[in-house]
């Protein structure tokens, strides 16, 4: 009887070790998928249906005063097209950086900010911040879908012929924005 008790204990210990091993493997995969997904979203470039070099399509946007317009009609010169939400702290920080450096580049670079938030929230934020550049709302999410925006902030540089020249995802400060703009201008000349 004592022998069977020890055998039972050994079997229970083996089960416990096995369960711990399975739990460790599951935890490893959960962490790997989470980290991998985050990295993928941060480095994901637009897929081939809207590639660098393509012309910006005519997609509907709404200005903060309620006027309907088409994205392609807004682009009159070299443009930075910025996607953001009012709930994204990185987005709002970047837009504040744009606000600070806007006057340095507004003669040579147009800014078009596209909010993926509700119109009311966007208006409240823009009025509070006194944003000097144009902000539009993508109420239909057609622009977001066409540009494959899966994370914010996202910025596209567009040339005066309305062709997408580059794509940058992630938060940038004023110094980084200046560097990106100067790089973009060098590639355009």
Give the tags.
seven-stranded mixed β-sheet; 189 residues; 2 domains; Glutaredoxin; disordered N terminus; 6 helices; alpha/beta
Quick overview:
The termini are far apart. This protein has 189 residues and is of the alpha/beta class.
What is the element layout, followed by pairings?
Layout: H1 2-43, E1 60-63, E2 68-70, H2 71-74, E3 79-84, H3 89-105, E4 110-115, H4 119-129, E5 134-137, H5 142-146, E6 154-158, E7 164-169, H6 174-188
Parallel strand pairs: 3-4, 4-5
Antiparallel strand pairs: 1-2, 1-5, 3-6, 6-7
What does this structure look like?
- With 189 residues, the protein is an alpha/beta fold.
- It has 2 domains: 1-43; 50-188, 3-Layer(aba) Sandwich (Glutaredoxin), CATH 3.40.30.10.
- Helices cover 50% and strands 18% of the residues.
- The chain contains 6 helices and 7 strands.
- The protein has helices at 2-43, 71-74, 89-105, 119-129, 142-146, 174-188, and strands spanning 60-63, 68-70, 79-84, 110-115, 134-137, 154-158, 164-169.
- Strands 2-1-5-4-3-6-7 form a 7-stranded mixed beta sheet.
- The relative contact order is 0.16.
Helix percent reads: 40-55%
Cross-sheet strand order for the largest sheet: 2-1-5-4-3-6-7
What's the number of structural domains? 2
What pattern of helices and strands is seen along the backbone? HEEHEHEHEHEEH
The CATH H-level homologous superfamily of the largest domain: Glutaredoxin
The separation of the N and C termini measures 89 Å
Sheet-strand content, in percent, reads: 15-25%
Q: Which stretches are low in confidence, meaning pLDDT under 50 for 5 or more residues running?
A: 1-5, 40-49
Shape: elongated
